[in-house]
Structure formats: structure tokens, C-alpha cells
Write a structure and sequence with these properties.
Layout lengths: L2 H16 L16 E8 L7 E7 L10 E5 L19 H10 L6 E6 L6 H5 L2 H6 L2 H8 L16 H19 L9 E6 L1 H12 L6 E5 L14 H12 L7 E7 L8 H13 L7 E6 L6 H7 L1 H8 L2
Parallel strand pairs: 3-4, 3-5, 5-6, 6-7, 7-8
Antiparallel strand pairs: 1-2, 2-4
Helix pairs in contact: 8-9
Length: 313
Amino acid sequence: MNPFRLLILLSCLLAACAQQSTELSPPVLNVASGTVVRLPNFPSIHISPRTVDIWLPDSYDSEIPCNVLYMHDGQMLYDSTTTWNKQEWGIDEVLGELIANKKIPPCIVVGVWNGDESRHSDYFPEKPFRSLPEAYRDSLLKAKRYGGEALFSTDVQSDAYLKFLVEELKPHIDKTYSTKTEPAHTYVAGSSMGGLISMYALCEYPEVFGGAACLSTHWLGAFDTTTNVIPQSFMTYLDQHLPQPATHKLYFDFGTETLDKYYEPFQQQADSIMRAKGYSAVLWKTVKFVGHDHSERSWQKRLDVPLTFLMGE
């Protein structure tokens, strides 16, 4: 099959993996450990309302502050019986085991549902997007996925999405739950486009987030490997906006199958920037997972690696 056509087909899978529609009455989640508190349609002046699922570990004590992990694509985190592809991150299983075995301290997870059709507009880092030539930006905004679905439902609005996280959601979480509010105990994580927005969140708000886990980071930004100038815009942004390595942690990874097989050359460029900026192995980690593909099943298999890296003693 033509590589570009394969990319388009994979883009449909990528979109579907993360874009389970928000239902009016979402099903109750079944979790292996901890408790999930749902905030349906959390309001915002910056973006459309979002459902937020908050996972509290079994060891949660309202008198003892916890780390907080903000995760994108929240509808895919906990319960495979509620997802379109019957896959999940298994964050409750993985975190529950790590906490029980004292590999990391207790942690609250704030799972923010994506905006469905606005996902690409929400997660595409805005400053790199604005740095692209105007004609190229316009062509991206008109791009279609295989089957005719628009890649972007609106103009890129990731700066507004991050304002929602930082100015509206985080204050509510810190007010409602017993949290450690400092950057050293506040993390952000996601996969694919969620990996991009996690990197962007750390760079835009280094005073809020102390660490980011970027799994299967979609450095392509779109699905063109021939004339794509998007990855260079990400590299330039990363080079100019990386926070101080002494106070921040960054984790990247990628697999070798399906969409992930295109990421390694771009990840190597990002790694060169990390080294040049003084990030050591203590504060930065990139891992290649041979045989892993672009799916929740693969991310679940290796989720303990970034969580231990970010939060382990």
C-alpha cells in the first residue's frame, strides 16, 4: 500500500482511538482500584465544557496532600467496556500497583475528556502552528481525514485549552482535594496528539507543571511525511522554550509499529535538543519499545515506566 495512503488510514484509527463521543449520560466506570469522581460538562470560558474523571487512590486521605497527574483523552483511561475499541490505559491498575508497592507516592489522576471533533484543534501546540507559513496553515485547517472528516473542526485553540487546565480546572482540584500544589508534584501526560500538548503544557507553564510524559508523540502533527514542515516547527519551539532542566522532568517514548514507526527520526531530533539544553538522564528519558503500536493496549503495557520516572524516588 502507498505509504501516504497508509498514513491516512492510520489517522482514522488515531482519531477513533481517542475520540469516543461524549454521551449525555456516560456509563458508570468500573475500576480495579481507587475511586472515580465524575464532573460532567465542567464549564469553561475558554473552551467547550468537558467531562472530567478524577481518580482517587485507595490510600487517599483528605488530610495528606497527594501528587496530581493531569491526563488528556480522559474517556480512554479507566474502563475498556466504555471505549469504542474496548481498550484502555488501565491507569487505575497501573497506578494502584505502583502505589501499593511504594514505588511512587499516592497520586490523584485528573482525566480530562477530549472535545471529540475539536481534539486536533485543542491538542496541536498553538505557537508552533502560528509560526508556519500562512498558506500552509490555511491548507492544514482545510485538511480532511480519510473519509472526508475534517482534521481540524476549528482554528487551533490549544492555548485556550491550557488556560482551561491551569486557570479553571486546577484551582478547582486544589480547592476540592488534598493536593500538593507545587510544580514538583504536578504532572501532565498523554499520547500521540496528547503527547504534543503535554510537551507544550510543560513549556508554556513551567511554573505549574514540573514533569510531562509524552507517549508516542505525534511529531508529524498531521499525516504527511513528504512535504511536512510541521515537525521542524515543533523542534524550533522546543529549542526556544524548554524550561530549566534543574527543576523539570520530560519523558518521551515511541513504538515501532503502525503510526509509531514514523516517529523515531523526529524523536532523535528532539533528543538532540534535550541534550544540548543540559537535560541529564535523571531529568529526561526517551525509550523505544520494539513491537509496540499506536494503541491504548501498548500504552498500558509501558505506562509504569513514565509514571515511575516522573514520580519515583
